[in-house]
Every structure is written in C-alpha cells, then in structure tokens.
Amino acid sequence: MAAAAAAAAVGGPQPPQSELPAPGLALDKAATAAHLKAALSRPDNRAGAEELQALLERVLSAERPLAAVADSEEAAAAGGGGPGAAEEEALEWCKCLLAGGGGYEEFCAAVRAYDPAALCGLVWTANFVAYRCRTCGISPCMSLCAECFHQGDHTGHDFNMFRSQAGGACDCGDSNVMRESGFCRRHQIKSSSTIPCVPKDLLMMSEFVLPRFIFCLIQYLREGYNEPAADVPSEKDLNKVLQLLEPQISFLEDLTKMGGAMRSVLTQVLTNQQNYKDLTSGLGENACAKKSHEKYLIALKSSGLTYPEDKLVYGIQEPSAGTSTLAVQGFAGATGTLGQLDSSDEEDQDGSQGLGKRKRVKLSSSTKDQSIMDVLKHKSFLEELLFWTIKYEFPQKMVTFLLNMLPDQEYKVAFTKTFVQHYAFIMKTLKKSHESDTMSNRIVHISVQLFSNEELARQVTEECQLLDIMVTVLLYMMESCLIKSELQDEENSLHVVVNCGEALLKNNTYWPLVSDFINILSHQSVAKRFLEDHGLLVTWMNFVSFFQGMNLNKRELNEHVEFESQTYYAAFAAELEACAQPMWGLLSHCKVRETQEYTRNVVRYCLEALQDWFDAINFVDEPAPNQVTFHLPLHRYYAMFLSKAVKCQELDLDSVLPDQEMLMKLMIHPLQIQASLAEIHSNMWVRNGLQIKGQAMTYVQSHFCNSMIDPDIYLLQVCASRLDPDYFISSVFERFKVVDLLTMASQHQNTVLDAEHERSMLEGALTFLVILLSLRLHLGMSDDEILRAEMVAQLCMNDRTHSSLLDLIPENPNPKSGIIPGSYSFESVLSAVADFKAPVFEPGGSMQQGMYTPKAEVWDQEFDPVMVILRTVYRRDVQSAMDRYTAFLKQSGKFPGNPWPPYKKRTPLHPSYKGLMRLLHCKTLHIVLFTLLYKILMDHQNLSEHVLCMVLYLIELGLENSADEESDEEASVCGPERCHDSWFPGSNLVSNMRHFINYVRVRVPETAPEVKRDSPPSTSSDSVGSLQSSRRPKVLQRENSGTAQVFSLVAERRKKFQEIINRSSSEANQVVRPKTSNKWAAPGSAPQLTTAILEIKESILSLLIKLHHKLSGKQNSYYPPWLDDIEILIQPEIPKYSHGDGITAVERILLKAALQSRMNKRIIEEICRKVTPPVPPKKITAAEKKTLDKEERRQKARERQQKLLAEFASRQKSFMETAMDVDSPENDIPMEITTAEPQVSEAVYDCVICGQSGPSSEDRPTGLVVLLQASSVLGQCRDNIEPKTLPVTEEEQIYPWDTCAAVHDVRLSLLQRYFKDSSCLLAVSIGWEGGVYVQTCGHTLHIDCHKSYMESLRNDQVLQGFSVDKGEFTCPLCRQFANSVLPCYPGSNVESNLWQRPSNKNVQDLIKEVEELQGQPGAFPVSIISETNLSKEMESVMKDIKNTTQKKYRDYSKTPGSPDNDFLFMYSVARTNLELELIHRGGNLCSGGASTAGKRSCLNQLFHVLALHMRLYSIDSEFNPWRKLTQLEEVNSQLGNEEQQPEVPILYHDVTSLLLIQILMMPQPLRKDHFTCIVKVLFTLLYTQALAALSVKCNEEDRSAWKHTGALKKNTCDAEKSYKGLLSFVISELSKGKLYHEEGTQECAMVSPVAWSPESMEKYLQDFCLPFLRITSLLQHHLFGEDLPSCQEEEEFSILSSCLGLLPTFYQTDHPFISASCLDWPVPAFDIISQWCSEINSFTERHAEQGKALLIQESRWKLPHLLQLPENYNTIFQYYHRKTCSVCTKVPKDPAVCLVCGTFVCLKGLCCKQQSYCECVLHSQNCGAGTGIFLLINASVIIIIRGHRFCLWGSVYLDAHGEEDRDLRRGKPLYICKERYKVLEQQWISHTFDHINKRWGPHYNGL
Predict the structure, then answer these.
(1) How far apart are CA 1136 and CA 1161, in angstroms?
(2) Measured between alpha carbons, how far is 963 from 1515 in angstroms, rounded to an integer?
(3) What does the DSSP 8-state code read for residue 1388?
C-alpha cells in the first residue's frame, strides 16, 4: 500500500483512474465507500488502494484553493456557499469512507464498544469546575472531573473544588498520578481480557483515510500562515484560518472520543515516519505540494530555526543521548565575554523588545548548544502538528485534540518527546506573543499533563536531555532582559541582573517554563540527576545569579521620587518562582544522610558563584551607603542547603563553611537588609515613596518569609557563630548607624543619622540582636515545634479564621514537602493551641465568621514576642499582641500592671551553632549594655522603655547561656587579646557584671555640661577608656598599618580579619576611621569635640539595683530575697516563662546573677547595704524638671479629657433615652412628651433638625420620618404548613398558584367577569403583591426643616448610598434610611379622651349616626377647600405612596384611571400595613401589646392621610354596603338592573375590606362607640359567610341532617345566637338556588371526608372569623391606643371578641365558649340572611360552579417563608452551575436563583436583558415588587436588590470551620447555617434590609 500511496502522491492521479471517481462523486457516497471497503479487504488490495488515493486526492484537494482565497481579501467576493460547502462535502466523504458504507453513527457506536481505556482523560478548558483530593493524589497537580469525583468515595478526605485557571484533564484511572482507592466506579482498573479484540475490517478504512486527512489539515495550516510583515503577527489572519479549520479539528476531536481503539489508529497515523515522508517531502511534480513545502521551510527559517538538511549549517551532529551537552568550563567564562552573536534570533530580540531604559547586556552564545536552541527536524505528522500549534499560539481546539489523545500510552510518550524537542521554540514564541497570558495557560495545560508523571519525566530526562533543555531555555530566556548591575561599584561592575521593568518579568511570562521545571524537580529520580550533574549545577547557579541584587533601591536624600516604580512585585515574584521554588524542590530530596554528596555539590557551586559575584561587583569590605536590594538568592540557596545539611544529613557544618574572609563578606548584605528594614520603619526612606514600605512588608510576608528573611537571619546566625564576636557586634551597631549614640556623655553628635531617627534605629539594632540570639527556626527546632510557634505568633496578634491561618503560616512552598495545608499536624497543633469560637450573630451587626483564639495556657506559657516581631507585616500587630497579652494577665489576675514582653526560655541550640552564644560574652556587647543602662539611669534623651527592655533581655540571655566553668575568683583572660581591658577584665558576663568602672574619658561637643566640670586627676590609667574609640571597628589599611600606637591583631589572626582594635588609653580619644575608598565620606567638617572625664563608679549590678529604685519610684526598694529565705539559692524555681514588668525583670536578673556566682551575691548585698540615695549628677535637674512639668501637664490634660468624656456620656445617655423610648403605648403619637396637666395636653413633637419642641400646626406641620416600600411578602403566604424547598433536580418544580397573591388575583378576576366593575373594586383588597408598607424610626421633624435638609444633601457631593433625587435620605438623628415624611395630624389628646368615653346609645341610633356621618363629605376639622401647608403635605405624601409601587400593582380596574381604583388602592394600603404588622407579631395576637412593631408604628398618622383622601370620593348612597348590612330592602329594587351587570352579592364581599372602607369614610378622629358598632354589624356578615362556606364544605347527608335539627330550634328565643339554627336556615335558603345541585367531580374535592362533629364545626367557624378579629383588634389598638391583652392560642377568639366589645360583659365562662354568642343582629337575623342568600341564588342560577368557589374563601394563611435550602451547598451548585437559562437557553456566566420563588436567572446576563433591565432586577420587580433575594450560585453569597440599590448580604453556607467561602475560592464543602438563614428571612419579613445592611450601591439595572 505504501508504494501505491507514494505513486499517487508523486505522479498525481493517472488518467485511467481519474475517470473512476468522477461518477463516484455523483453516485451515492455510501455505495462508493462500501465498494472501496470491499476492494481493500481483498488480499491483493493494490487496485483498491490506488482508487481510494485518487478519490481522496480529489475530495481533499478540492479544498486547497479555498485556503488561499480565505487568506486573500477576495474571500468576501467569492461569496455564496463557496468555502463552507466544499469543506462540508469533504467531511461528509471522510465520514462515509470511515464507516465503509454503513451509517456514521452506528460506526461510532461500534468503535466505542472496543474501548479498553481505563482512564477518564476528560480534557477541560479554563473556568471548568474540577476537584482535587490531596488524600488520593500522588502528584500535587492531580485533578478530577466532577463526575469521577462524585462517583468515587472521598468521604473524610482533604479535597476541594476549584475553578480551573489554565484548563486540565481528569486523572481518574491513572495510577501514576493518584492512588487507586480514589478511582471512580467507571475507571476502577478493567482487566484487558474482558475487552474483545478489534475486528480488522472495522478500522481498516480509517488507516487509509486519516493520513490524507491530517496531511490536508497540515497543508491548510501551512498555507494559512503568513509571516507577519512587522513584528506584530496579525491576530486576525490567524484567527480566520483557525475558524475555517474549526470543523476539521472538531472532527478529529470527535474521533478521539470514540475510545481506545480509534485513538491507537490515530497514534499510528500521527507517529508513522514513512507516511509523513511520503506525503510531505514536497518532491515530484505536484505544484501544490511543492508550494506548501516551501511555505513550511520559510516558516521554520523565520522562527530562527534551521532545517537540518540545509547543508548542516552548524556542523553539529545531534548529540548522543547520554552525554550532557553543557560544557562546564564554558559557562564560567560565559558571563564575562561578549562572544559571537546568535543566528537569526539576535535582531529579533533586540529589535522587538528594546524597551528597557538601560542598555541591555547581551551574553555570549558561544557556549550555547545550538542543537537545543536552533535546530528542529520534523519526522512525523505529530511533530509538525505541534509546530503549527505553537506557531498559531496554541489554539484551544488543537490543544484539546492533542490532549484528548493522551490516554493512549504510546502516543503519550511520543508526544512528550515531541513537546520537549520543541521546548526552545515554545519559549521563543511565548516571548513574542501578545497574548502571553492565554498562551501561558495553554502551555501549562499541556505540560502539567506530561511532567506530573514521574515515570514519563524520568524517561524523557534520560532520552531527550530534558533537564539540559529546560535549564538552557530558561537561561536563554532571561538573557534577553539583562542590564548592568549598579550595586556597589556602578562604574566598574561586571555583574548583570535582570531588568524587572521588562515585560518578561512584569507579566510573569516566564512562569510556564519555571513551573514545568519545578514540576519535574518534584520527582526524586529527576532531581537526583540534576544534583549529580556538575555542569547543570554551574549553569543553574549562573541563572540564579541573574537575580542576585536585582531591583536595587537607592535612598532619596533630597526630594521625593517623582515616579514610584512598581517593579518590586515582579522582583519578588521572580525570586520566589524562579529561584526559591526550585530550591525547595531540590531540598525536599536532601532529607537523609545518603544525600550528603548532593548538598556538598550545591554548596560548592553556590560559593563559587558568590565569589564570582563579589568579584564582579568589586566588593571589598564596606557596602555602599544608601543602597539596598532585597534579593540575594545565592545567599539563600547557600543558607538553606547549610541548614538542611546540619538538620537532616548530619554533615559537619565546618566542612561546608568557607574561610573567615568569605564569611565576613557573606554577612554584609543580609545585615544591610536588616538595617534597612529598621531605616524604612524609621521613615528614613520616606522620599522613596510607599513602594519601599511595600518591599519591607513583602520581605517578611507569610508567602515569602521562609524563602527570604528566615534564610537571611539563619545565615547571619551562622556567620556570628564563626566570626569574632567583637567584630560582629561592632558591625551591627555600625550598620544601624548608632555608634555615636553609645557614649556616656549626655550629648553627642551623630554624623550619619538625624536625631529624630536615633531612638528607633537603636531599638532596631537591639531588637535585631535579640532576634538573632533567640530565634531557633533553623537552629534546633523540630518541624512541629516550628509550626506551633508560627501558629501561636499569628493567633496572639489577632483571632484568626481557619483559612487565614492556613494562609498566614509559612508552609514550605514546595508541595511535596510534607506540611500540606490541612495536614494532620496542622489540625492537631491548632486544636492544641487554640479554642474555636463559633460564628455568632450580633443583631443588626455584621455576621461573624468562626474564629480561633489562643487558649489561656498559650498566653501563659507560649506567647513569644520575638516571633511576633519577626512575623508582623504591620507594626501595629505587635502592639495588638501586647494588648491582648495584657488583657489576659489582668483578667486571669496574674499581673495587674502594664506587663513587659515576657521572657521565654529557648529550645536548646544544635551543637553546631554553640558559637552563637559567644556574642553574649564579648566585651563590646558588655560595654554597650553598661553604657545604655547608665544612660537610661541618667535619663539621657532618645532612650525608651523598649531599649531598656531589650537591654535587660540581652543580659538575661547572657546569664542563661553563661559558660558553666567560670571560676568564681578570677576571670580567665585569654592570651594576648586584652582589647578592652580598660573596661572589663574578661569576657564572661557573669564576672563582668560586678566589675566597677570608675572614670571614663569621653569626647563631647564643647557645649556639653560635662566640659565645665574639673576633671579629677586620672587616678588609674586603665580605668579610662573611651567607648567611642574602642567601639569603632577599624579597617585594616593595607598600605599603612603603622599608624601611631594602633595595635593590630595580625599576629593572632589572619590578615584579612578586617578589624583594628584600639587598646591604648593614650590614644583613646583619637577616632581613626580609615575607609576603603573616600567616595562615601560624610560631607561637612566634623563638629568641634573636646575631651572630658566622667566619674562613674558603677558596675552593671549597681546600675541594675539603682534602676530598680528608679522604676519602682521608692528608694531602697530592692531587697535581696535570699536574705530571708536561703532556700531560694539552693533550689531556685526559675520558671521557663516569666510575666511581669521592668521591676520583676530586674529582680529576676539579680537573682540569676547571684545564683551563678558567690561574688555577685556578696556584691549585691553590699550595694544594698550602702543606702545610696540615687542622686544623679546635678546637671540632670533641668531635664528632670522638664519631665516633671511634662508629667504635670499630662495629668492636667488627662483630667480635662475625663471631664469632657463624662459630659459627652451624659449627653449621649439623655439622647438615647429620648430616642429609644419611642412612644409609650398610652399615647397614640410617637416621640410625644406628655406634660403634667392632662387637660391642655396637645401632642408635642421634637424636631430632630432644629431641636425645637411644639405641636404640629396647619401652617408649620411636623412629620414622622418614614420609609415607604413596595412589598410582596404578604403575597408569598401559602396555605400549607410545610415551607417549599428549593428545587435541586429536574423533577422538582415550584408552582406559584397556591400563594396568597395568586389566590386573590384569581378571585378578583372571577368577580370582574360576572359583576359590575366598580362594585368588584369595593369587594376585595389589593396590595398582596406590591402593597405599600410604611415604617418609621419614630423621629419627627418640621416639614420645612426637612426640605432644607434635603437641599443640603443635594448639594453635598459625597457619594451616598442613596439617591437624594428620589427623595431618599437618612434620619438626621438615628441615620435610619427613609424616603418620605408623613405629616402628623394636629389635634390634642383631650379630644381623643372624649371620643373614647362609652355612650349609652343603643345600636339602632349608632347605626343611623354612622350612616349620616358617611354621607357628609365635608365633615372634617381641616377644611379641604383652603389649601393649608398641612393639606399640601398630605397630598404630596399620598403621591409618594402611590409612586412607591408600580402601576400594575395599583391599577386593577377595567377602565383605567377610574376613581374606584384610587379608592381601592388607599384602603388597601391600610390593609397591607395591618396584615404585615400581624405577620411581624407571628401571625396572631397571643403575645399581646408588648410588640416592638407597635412602638414604631405610624398607622395612626397614615390613617389620617388616607381618610382625608378617601373622603374626597363619596360612595353613592344607593350602593353603600352599609345599607345592605343594616336595612331590609324592598323587593322591587332588584328588577331594574337586569340588563347591566349585577353588583357583587354582599356575601362575596371581603369583610376586612368593608371594615376599612367604613372606618376611613368616617370623619376622623373616630368615636369609640361608632367603631364598635361598625364591628358588630360586620361580624354578623362574617359569621353568615362562615356558615355558608361550611354548608358548601359538607356533603348532602350532613346538610339535610342539620337542616332538620336546626329547623326545630328556629323558634326558640336564642335561635339568632346559636349556630345550629342559623346554619340550618342558611342551608334551607341556599337550597332554593342551584348552589348545591351540581354534585359534580369538583364537589368531591371540596368535601371533607371526615364527618363534622359540633366541636370541629365550632373550630371551623372560629378559624374563619379569627383573621378579621385580629386585624380589627390591631386597628382598635392603633386608633384608640388600647393595650392588646395577651392570651393562650386556644382562647384567642374569646379574648379578642370581648376586647372588641362583641361579647356581652355578663358572659359566663363556665360552659364551653360558643362563637355565635358574639352575634348582635341589627335587624332580625333570619330576614337579613334570607335577603343576602337570595342575591347568591340569583347568581347561581347561571353559574353554580363559580358561585361555590367564591363562597369558600381560604382565610387561614400560614406565615410567609423563604424556600428551604438543602443541607449541603454542593447539591445546589452541581444542579445550577451547569443549568441552562430558560430564556436564552445558554448556561449563564453568573447564574443566580431567587430564594423567594425559586426562579433561575442570569445575573448581569446581557442575553436576557429587556428594555435595559437585566434579568435579576426585572425579576426583583415582578417577584418582590422591587425587593429580590438571590443566591449567586458561583459565589455562594446572597445579594439583596432593593429598588435601585443592591447589597451583598453575605453567605448562609459556612464550611466546617464556620467560615464563608465567597466565590468558592477555597472550594471546601459548605453547610447551611440555619441561624443565618433565619436572620435573612426575618429581615425580609420585617422589611429591614435597608436599616441593617450598611453597604448599598446603585445597580443601574445591570444585575
């Protein structure tokens, strides 16, 4: 077959064959395919093969010209069905041929049956939701698709859900990446035996067709690629080509999904070299093929690659696999010489990216292995496909196809090798790309699949030199952005560093390559090869040194820098990713003794690189001043490998340490960083802008600290333990620039530091020494101890959530290192040191998260200020930790005062570092401590308590770590080194403490007070020494070492020990400080100094005792404790951990000193005996006076402050009393202050703006601050008790027709169908949906004051959370949100008292009065005709109320704008507010009047406004329902209105609506007896309705039974008050109509199967009437201010009815209560009932069904609830995040679901936008009349939309640690928090979203 293929390819189609396919094309494709398949199945299949070739040539080459067309601009002109059609055709052919004549679908199914693959391999792209289980993963990159994850068993595992950033693939079934226990049910290893063999003929056609198809695709790609003219590849062209190829690539992708059988065919095709050679060589006469081959060669060339056949340009053969291609010796010189230039890549790099400000440095490429960088030879389709994939910048479709093939093992290996082969090319393309982010993601998408597999990585490392390639490519990439380093010696520096301003670093373009490198280093076998290969290590150190000293900061001394560069982000990221992470990767493989060799290698090359660096920057011994770089990766590599060597590999430290000179150089730069940190915190770098602070913070921040500050401090500890301690200590103080401060003199001059910075720099230096000496992170602590210390430090600063703790604790950045977040040790340590505080709710406050807080014993024994200081990013955290510590000590009663940081015993040092403690026993430090103690005692300036604290800490450390063998009597003086003898005899602190120093000679400015004193004769020469001179470290002057009297230690030490110690007292005052170069000498002449001699006569011990006196403020306060109790010395109980302040610290030190030496004990006793009054020298008095004055002034200021505070508090208290005790229940107006004389008590209001009190008048009305909002909460009531649950499967649905709103809607439309419209609008209430709810905070203001307040808000440009133009504001007093003012009706309390007096009129008279009063339109105290301010305001507030809700919620009339509509709307507003208050009280009135809702109610004022407007409409007396209720009509009135629609029968009226109409039609204020009268009348109607409904509900037999029993009672006296008589009468009346006739199917639904007992009937009647009684009682409570009685639920009916005056007062309660006893008929009961029933009968004549439906009113609504949510958030997430939107049928980017009705919406989706409203806003208007509560599926948070504003409410789902997971970033399982959900529901029902949630913003209809 191959020969045939070749022939076909070369010669093109031969004439005889070309005729065959022509008819074939016309013929049915399937037939041709079948014919060819048959031909090919024969043993001799040459003819068939040729025929097929010819056909394919025709079919597939038909497309080729099209590609050309597509490229040129004529594509449009060609038009028509052109390109698309031909390609479709080609694909159809391919499908037919593959199927060999059968159906393509059946073929697919057949192939799938042979799928042996046990891997999932599902490939996904960015934003896909996947899972990662750390318990099951072997590689940290392991991931699973949701399906495999849920099918597997991961209970109790450490897993999380995540959104893929770069894309990925499912690893289920791959045992190289994850443990088999985690496989899902589908991919648990199938044995291959069960899968049958693939029949040969099934895939035979594929083997013939696919090579041509793929070749065709490659030709397309070749044709389509035009080398961009400029350096800008035209994205457009590339995308065009890719769009054309979409169907072809998709076709290939579909093939890969057919399973293993098809994948192995594809693998054969893609990797077969012969096929490739035959088809693509471009030989022969086929012009097309030639042209395409040429294009391919051009593309290769332009990529800077050569095609090896081109006369083997470089003469380099492909290197043999085993040898390393990097020449070791070459690289040492590489950085120095600028060698020959690269091939074609050179111009390309310099041209396109010459953006850096400084000249780029180009390194020599002579050492480059050309074969890695520039040679590419393609031998198979796969290789060329990958080449084009890279060239086209990794199109997603291609990437997916290449990855889909990975489950095929053979392909995986081939593809990985190809990928490695193209690695350099990938890097070059990536560097040029404009979309480097997208491209990076796609590269990693591929590489992570290949390199996470250890077996594969090892194989490629061995066979393809993967490590060489990676390191070379990285080096090469960084070389393109090097600049000359300016560190140290700017002119002559040879060092080059990366330029952090380059795009390459700024955009992290390097990360795909670095992350691959880190990934392969995590495999032990690969890392070992790396560590063994010296050439690689040299190259790698070379790479690391590019980062050494990058991003150099120079301190600005004159003006502020004008442009703050943000390059430091890039620098820190680069060091962490490119240097530190590979380092951690390597370290993780150096854990055991056997790996010592590796460490030695790294250390060796690291030191070499460091030495080269020091040479390159010309470093001798002094760092350049005012420069700092935070980036020393070489130092850190060295430090970390040292630490590992000692800790894990038992290496001898000294064997890997360099000589002293190198150590001295090594310590300089890390020390410089520590000093610079102190300078930055002292604001000395303030002119460099904020970014320098940013660097100082990042350096210690939790993600960086263990790769930055920890290694630095460790390296300094190592240097300190091996260098001369005096040299080290003096270097520290010199670096911190505080040498000049350390003098006994009271004044001094500091040449290098301003006075204001001295104190903080001194504190910095001492703090650094304390950290250096007490930190044990790398000096002997175990991992668990470290973890514990870190955790304690973080928890002491603040309580932390679990996730922030995980984030703050620096874990080893390498994922395989063992401490994984969430690992067992983390959890166990956490539970040992902290208590969990469950999330609590502060009502009205923010919602808390679950927090961890330190246990008491942690504060008591483990709080470590040193660790806290080391780990704080913000200085305030140190203070916070100390405050919390103080609070703990006070609370537990351990220490009442202000404690000092506690002293903590440290973990013992590892023996290798014992030398560190010598720092504590060197004379230099002792002189410093002595001087500082003396200065503190003498109150010199610039010293703080902090300094003293640190000094004492160092002394105590010294005593703890003293050499035990110190002989008490004489201190050993070692050898000739008697440097500071003039100060101290020896170097042991214990003995030096008691050494008295008599005189000190100091240099002071001439102005100093010491000068004026006569110097005493210098009695003993050795007691005079100058700290100044002895402290200055001298630099060895190599030319002239013979300065007068300067002793050098050259004899004892090696020459390069750069310190000259001055021992001669005669020279003591000469400050000689030669420099290595004079470049940095301080300008300006030195100040005039003169010598003075001070008399001191103190020792450290005596200073301490005097300090004790000073601190305690008492003389002789110190008394040695052992004089009383000698036991103390024999068995000292010195705790490991000590609390207390300075006094206890001094006592502790003295005790320790006494314990350690008998001499000290004796001397302490002596000092205490000499009662020395601590009189400081006289010169102090002035200063002391100053401090005393200061104290006094402070005291006075404090008293003033107290006074002010007290005054303020009392004011606040009185305000709270007036503000909060709003409205005691007797008064009916909030904020009312009643005066003593009741007869003149007119209501008085306080205006919260102008502060005046007074009544509300017509001219200057007062109003209540109110918030009007539309509400649909009432409409959400349902009649079933079970709240609905949120649907989480397709089957579950929520239907809205059983909600209150729906039922009322149906009722109204039913009435409007059959009855007169105007009458219908009086028979019901609206406002169940979109009703207006009015609430107030209870504060009042003058309406004119309010107007000016609004004006001022309008002019205020501050962005408020509300819109002033819409009338919104916040209450000036309590800041509650409001949007209107409700005028208070003028009137006095006296009136209302009169009105409430009961009258003795009988019912008939009252009924008459009511009717007359309703008829008088003008009967109003305020005449409506005269336009007063008050009536204007009432009108405007009425307008506000109307505009609060949408038109559709107010207009229900058939004739728009009819007055009936307004009338209906107004009384419905009253109804809405009453109903809602009832719901707030829990749906009943059992709790009585103590409800909060009542306190803040504004119903009274609202009623006045509504009544005023209702009275403008008079109801035609003909139709006034009052008549129908209270009078019997003549019969004839019915006849006249037959032709028009009848009125609504009175039994169909809603009684509560009637009540409101009647009351609002009456003149206000209403009289109590009129009110009671109205209620009594309406109750008769209500009761009759209940009886009628009951009669419909029971069946025929029951009805006839009752009819008879009741009929007997009709004539008894109490028939009108017994339900039996009335019921039988109702039944008999209604039987006259057709109401009961239709015993149809519907009947059965209504009939209750249970037989009715008298009790159940009584209960039914009571339940029917209760809602009316409740509303009426509430109304009475608001109108007349009467208290509501509280009661049990079962007696609610009787209590309310007696409260309303329905029950006669003499009613006895001994026999069971009967509801009928409340009836009080105004006219004979049976007459009026028969009149009412006749109306119904006339209606049921025609419409019996509807008549029945209207009678049964469902009045028992349950309280409204939000939907119930499932326990686990995942159930919601999995269902909704992939659900398609019903409107646009797409899967929304941000899906959301409404928690009120369960509707699924697209948040911010433009797809579902209607008239500029996005879907959520629209839904909030339809579902909640402007209030929407949505759960955002992808974020797990709830947002509230209220009108035009929205806010993030928070989440009701918390993880196991009580934390929200907004945006599901952590992806841990979340569980419902019932308390939170209850609060949300409560806020919804009580309409308090606006008041409780603070952060509102406008949504501009875009949600």
Answers:
(1) 22
(2) 109
(3) B
- CB-facing half-sphere around the CA of 1768: CA atoms within 13 A: 7
What integer pLDDT is reported at residue 802 of this predicted model? 92
Enter the tokens of residue 386. 């990958």
- Above 50 in pLDDT, residue 1077? no
pLDDT score of 1711: 60
Cβ pair 821, 806 in contact under 8 A? yes
797 close to 877: Cβ distance less than 8 angstroms? yes
What is d(CA 528, CA 556) in angstroms, rounded to the nearest whole number? 47
Q: In terms of DSSP H, where are the helices of 838-973?
A: 856-861, 865-871, 876-892, 923-937, 945-960
CA distance 1462 to 1474: 19
Q: What SS3 class is residue 828? A: helix
Cβ–Cβ under 8 Å, residues 812 and 706: yes
Instruction: Tell me whether residue 89 is exposed, middle or buried, using C-beta atoms within 10 angstroms of its C-beta: 0 to 12, 13 to 18, 19 or more.
Output: middle
HEC per residue, 1630-1691:
HHCCCCCCCCCHHHHHHCCCCCCCHHHHHHHHHHHHHHHHHHHHHHHHHHHCCCCCCCCHHH
DSSP 3-state assignment of 677?
A: helix
Round to whole Å and give the CA distance between 1886 and 1477.
9
DSSP letter string, 1761-1774: -PPB--SBHHHHHH
Alpha carbon distance 1383, 1437 (integer Å): 8
Distance CA 176, CA 1043 (A): 72
pLDDT > 90 fraction of the chain, expressed in percent and rounded: 25
CA–CA dist 821, 159 (Å, integer): 11
Contact status, residue 520 vs residue 457, Cβ threshold 8 Å: yes
Q: For residue 447, give every residue at least 6 positions away whose Cβ sits within 8 Å of its Cβ, in sequence order, or none.
A: 419, 512, 515, 516, 519
Mean pLDDT for all residues in the chain = 77
Could you read off the pLDDT of 868-883 as tens digits, one per residue? 999 998 889 999 999 9
Alpha carbon distance 665, 1452 (integer Å): 90
Q: Are 623 and 1080 in contact (CB under 8 A)?
A: no
Q: What is the pLDDT of residues 888-917, one digit of tens each?
A: 999 988 888 889 999 888 888 899 999 999
Tokens at 1588, concatenated: 């009628």
What's the pLDDT score for residue 1638? 56
Among 455-459, 1358-1362, 1418-1422, 1528-1532, the range scoring the smallest mean pLDDT is 1418-1422
Listed range (204-208, 410-414, 563-567, 1210-1214) with the worst mean pLDDT = 1210-1214
**Joined tokens for residue 442:** 């796609």
The pLDDT score that the predictor gives to residue 790 is 93
751 confidence band (pLDDT: 50, 70, 90) = confident
Confidence of residue 379 (pLDDT cuts 50, 70, 90): confident
pTM: 0.81
Tokens in use for 1359? 């962005």
Strands 1245-1246, 1253-1254: parallel, antiparallel or unpaired by DSSP? Answer: antiparallel
Pairing of strands 1369-1370, 129-133: unpaired
Q: Are the C-beta atoms of residues 577 and 814 closer than 8 Å to each other?
A: no
Q: What are the two backbone dihedrals, phi and then psi, of residue 1869, each rounded to the nearest 5 degrees?
A: -60, 140
Taking alpha carbons only, the member of 1619, 1622, 1627 closest to residue 1595 is 1627
| Rounded (5°) CA angle 1405-1406-1408 | 65
* Phi, psi for 1741 (deg, rounded to 5): -50, -45
Measured in whole angstroms, the distance separating CA 451 from the mean position of its chain's CA atoms is 31
Judge whether 897 and 1141 are in contact, CB under 8 Å. yes
Residues 6+ apart with CB under 8 A from 1702: 1575, 1576, 1579, 1718, 1720
Comparing 1078 with 1488, the larger pLDDT belongs to: 1488
Q: For the purposes of burial, counting CB atoms within 10 Å of the CB of 370, is it exposed (0-12), middle (13-18) or buried (19 or more)?
A: middle
